[in-house]
Amino acid sequence: MFAVSISLSTMAAIKIQSDDVSSDGTRIVIASFFNIYSETLSGGALSLHATEFNVNNERARFYSLNFMLNDGVFEIIKGSKLLIKLENGEIIELSAAGDVLKDYDMLRTGLVYPTYLISKDDLQKISITPVVKIRIETAIGTIDHDIKKNKFSKGIKESLVLIDNQLQTVKDIYSDF
Hints:
The chain has helices at 120-128, 151-166; strands at residues 15-21, 27-33, 45-55, 58-70, 81-86, 91-95, 103-104, 110-112, 115-118, 131-138, 141-146.
């Protein structure tokens, strides 16, 4: 059985979880939201990450979806698929950015934290058209989850706005020191 681990400090609203910058100017902004699955006992921990860095004196940015999954059994192999089914029947296919092995928390439940790179175009599709289902490919098979009406899409839309607004502010390693 697959379940999602939810921290006791689960956030009620979407907000910027972190905004970190390194001495080389790389900046990572994370917005988190929870409770996207329609199953009563599952929560669905998900965050949207934006990484911005310098390439040839210009800023480049990429986005990733990061899940916190808990079932104590499976691993996700680099290239494993995440299928996101939209209400209009379109399927967005993402690939795991790297191998993800189990990590154990204080309660000894096996957690995995897969990361999937996603384009801004796909994020915008998701923010406009509700997500109805996701399928996660693991090393031992697939796991399907129905999504609460508009939860995933609304979370992506609000997170994208928050992150893009946050990245409009200037920040370097000396900020907030």
